[in-house]
Structures
1.
Amino acid sequence: MSKQIEKIKELVAKREKARLGGGEAAIEKQHARGKYTARERIEMLVDKGSFEEYDMFKLHRCHNFGMEKKQFLGDGVVAGSATIDGRLVYLYAQDFTVNGGSLSETMSQKICKIMDMAMTMGAPVICMNDSGGARIQEGICALAGYGEIFERNILASGVIPQISGIFGPCAGGAVYSPALTDFILMMENTSYMFLTGPKVVKTVTGEDIDSEHLGGASVHATKSGVTHFTAKTEEDAMALIRKLLSYIPSNNTEEAPRVECTDPIDRKADLLNELLPDNPNMAYDMYKVINAITDNGEFFEVQANFAKNIIVGFARFNGQSVGIVANQPSCYAGVLDVNASRKGARFVRFCDAFNIPIVSLVDVPGFLPGTGQEYNAVILHGAQLLYAYGEATVPKITVTLRKSYGGSHIVMGCKQLRADLNFAWPTSEIAVMGASGAVAVLCAKEAKTKDDPKAFLAEKEDEYTEMFANPYQAAQYGYIDDVIEPRNTRFRICRGLAQLATKRQSLPAKKHGCMPM
C-alpha cells in the first residue's frame, strides 16, 4: 500500500471519528433526551448534500483540570456553509455530546470564522444553540470567546440576517448572542434561556422555580417577548427557519426573493365591505383583513403569542415580500402598550434594514392608560415605535380602517412620519380622541348650564362624530391620499407597491441616531 493511500485512509478515519462528536454513547444519550445531534440538525435544515464543513479537526488548547484528556475533533461545534432552497447560508450548531457543548476559546474561533465569512459573502447566518455555557476550565479565555462572538453579532446587525435556534440549554452570558440576532426560535419543553438559573434565583431571592417556568419557550413567547417562534419538534423548527428565509433577503443590499403570484392583484375582497360592526366599540378580527388582502391569504406571523394587541409578520403582495404591522381590535381593542410598542418597533426596524416594504393596517384607539404602563416607561417605548416608523426609508403604505386617535395615530405610520401612501376606509375616524372624551373636555362647563346636560352632551357628541368620524377632514388637508372602498384594498396596496419600487430616500448624515430605549 502506498503512503498516499495510507494518508487517505487516515483522513477518512479521522473524518468518521470527528462526525461522531463525543462518541456513540453520548449520541445515544442525546437521542434519549428526544434531541437530535448537531450534524443531524444541519442535515435536516439545509439542501441535501450542500453542507461544507470547516475546521473539523480543530482541538482546544486547554490543559487545566485534566482537559488535555478530553480532546474531541471539532471541539464541540459543527460549522460551515450550505444552501437552503438554493441560497447560500452560513451556520453552526453546538454539539452537546462534546463537553456539554461548552464554549472554549477555539470553539469561539470557529464560530467567528463562520460569521466573518457570512459578512464577506453577504449571506444569512444561522446559529443552533445547545450548550452548557462557558467552559469553566478555560476561565477568561472562554469569556473572551463570547465577547468576540457578541462583537460580530453587533457588526452583522442590519447587514445580514441572523437567526438563532435554541435547541437545549442557553444560560448565563451565552444568552446575549441570540438576543443580538434578528430572530429567535425556541423548542417547547426542551430549551430554555436565562441569565441566572433556578439555583441562583433560589439562593439570592428565595424564589423556588424550575428551568421551564424561569426561561422556557412558553415564558419567552408570551411574557418576555424574547423569542419570536416556538416549535414542538425539531422538524417543525427547521421548516419554520426555511419559511422565514423565504421572506427575507440575503443581505441589506438585496431585495427579498420574489415568487410567482397566481392571485390576481385586482381580486376584490367583498367581505371587507361588511366586516366592520356598525357599533364602533365592537371588536372584529384583523386576521380576516390580512387574509383577505394578501397573496392567497398567506401570512407568516412573528411573535404570535406576545403582545397580541398588535400583529406583525410577513406576507406577499403580487409575489413581493412585505412586512405587515396591524392593530388587533379583538385584543384590548387594539390599544398600544409597552409590549406592543416594543414588538412593533423591532419589526419595523428589521424590515427597514433589509429593504422590505411596510404595510400598516390601523385601528387604534390610543395608548393603554394606568400606572402600570407609565411606571414601565410607555412614553419611551411608544417613542420607539414612532422613531422606527419615522426613520424607515423603505416603501410605507398605511391603511386606516376605523379608529386612529391621538398619539397612537401618529406612531402608526402617519403621513408626517414620511409614509408614502396613506389610504383610509370610509369608516375611519381620525381625531385627537373619541367623541365622548372630546365632548367631555370641550363642553363640560356649558353642559352644567343646560336644563338637560345629558341631552346636550349627546347632541354635541353627534356633532363631533359627524365632523371627525370620517376620513374626509384628514383628506382635505392631504394627510390621507385617498379614501378607498374596503374591498379594493388589495389592489390599491399592490399598485402602490409597484409605484414605490424605485423609491429613494435617505437620512441626514450622522454616525447613528439615539433611539429612545
Note: The longest strand covers residues 396-405.
2.
Amino acid sequence: MSLASVDLAILAIYAVFIFGLAQWVSRSKGGEQKTSTDYFMASKSLPWWAIGASLIAANISAEQIIGMSGSGYVIGLGIASYEWMAALTLLIVGKFFLPIFLRNEIVTMPQFLQQRYGPTIRNVMAVFWLLLYVFVNVTSILWLGAIAVHTVTGFNQDYAIVAIGVFALAYQLWGGLKAVALTDIVQVALLVCGGLIIGFIALSTIGGAGGALAGFNTLLTEFPDKFDMILSPDNPHYQELPGIAVLLGGLWIMNISYWGFNQYIIQRALAAKSLPEAQKGIAFAAYLKLLMPVIVVLPGMAALVLAPNLSAPDQAYPSMMNLLPVGLKGLVFAALIAAIIASLASKVNSISTIFTLDLYAKIKKDVPEHQLVTVGRIAAVAAVIIGILTARPLLGGFDQAFQFIQEFTGFFTPGIVVIFMLGLFWKRASEAGALTAAIGSVVLSAVFWWLQETGQFIFPFMNRVGVVFIVSLIAAVVVSLLVPAKPDAMKIKLDKISYKTSLGFNLAGVGVIAFLILVYSIWW
C-alpha cells in the first residue's frame, strides 16, 4: 500500500494544524508563567467535551485499531466486549470513584495511596507506574505505531519510531495536559470520521447495489458464528474470551483498573472544573466507547469477505484502507496517526506528572512552581528518549508485543484493584494489607503463568485475573485485620460525599445498560 501526493498533503496539513492548535489552546495569557496546576492539571478547568474526548484519545491507539480489527477478522464481534463493557465501567467510575477523588483534591493516584495508606505504598506504586508507562506503554505505542505506519506506507520502521516520538513530545511539551486534552476533541473527531468512512465503504463494497446495510446482512448470513458475543468452550478462541467470564469475571477487574485507577486515563477527570462536569465527560466517553466496535472491529469482519486469504490477521485494517480513494485514504491514515499521537502524548504527560509531583516534589521540598514545570518537561523528554531507544530491543515484533503488554500488566492489575477498592470503601484497610495484595497479585499471577507456560495447567488469562483478584482481596482483608492501620494513617475525607448524580447522567446510564442488554440478547 502507498499514499498518493494528495494523501501525504492531507497528512502534512493535519500535523501542522494539530501542532499549532496545541500551542494556541495552551498559551499563557499576559506573559504569565505556568504553574504546576496549569501544566499537569490544565488549571483544573477542563470542560466535559474535552474530558470525554481525551479519555477516548488516550485509550485508542494503533495497537487497538490494528489489533482489534485483526481480532474481528479471527474471532468476530465477541472482541467488542472489551469496548462495550468499558462503557458501563466508565459510568461506575463517574458515579462512585470520582466523588471521593475530587472531594479530596486528588491529582495523582500515588497521592491517593499516601493519603489513604501511607508513604511506603505511594513510593512503591509511583515507581511501578513510571516503569510500566515508560517500558510497556510508551514503547508499545512507539513500536506498534511504527509498524502501522510501515504497513500502510512502507516508511522505515525505525525512522517512524523517532518521528512519532518527537512529534508527540513536541506538540504537548510546552502546554502539558491542556495542550493534550483541548486538542483531543479534534483527534477523536478525526478518528471517528475515519473509522466510519472505512467501515461504510467496506460494507458498501460487499453489499454492491444494496449498500452498506446489504453488506452487513451478507456478513450475518455468511459468518453467523463470527457474531457470537459469548463463546462456548469448544470455540477455538475460548482462551481469549472465556464465555460468561467476559461478563462476570476478570474483564471487570481489568476495566476497573484501567478506567478507574490509571493515571493517564483518570487524570482528565481529575482536572475537571467540577464534579458534574467530570461526570458529563465520563458519560460522553461511555457513548463513544459504544461506537468504537463499529470503527475498530467491523473493518476486520468486512475483510472476511473482501480479503479472505490474509497471511496475518493484523493486515485486515490496512487491507480495508486500500479500498479508499485518493484523498479519503489520506484522511483515514491521518486518523490512525491521530490515535497514535494522542495516546502517546497522554502517557508522556502522565509520566511527567507522577515523576514531578510524587517523587521529585517529595524529595525537594518547597520547590518553586516554575521549577516543577521545568522538571516535568525534562521528565517528558527523558521518557520519550528511553522509549525510542528501547522499543525495538524490548518488543521485537507485533505478536510478541501484544503478549508482552497483556502478560506484564495482568500480573499487577488484580492487586491494584484490591488496593483502591478497599481504600475507597473499607475504612479498616491498612498499608500492610495493601502491600500484601500488591505482592500477592504478582506472585500468584507468576505461578499461574508458569504453570500455563509449562503445559501443566491451561487457564484463560481473563479467568486468571479474576481468581488472583479474589485471593488477593481475601489476603488483604485478613492482613488488614491482623495488622491494623495506625490511627493517624487515614487522611482521606469520606464525609460530605454524595453519590447522587444528575438526571442526564442517570439517563445516560440507562441508555448504556439498555444498549448492552440489546446487543447481548441479539448475539448471545
Note: The mean pLDDT is 87.
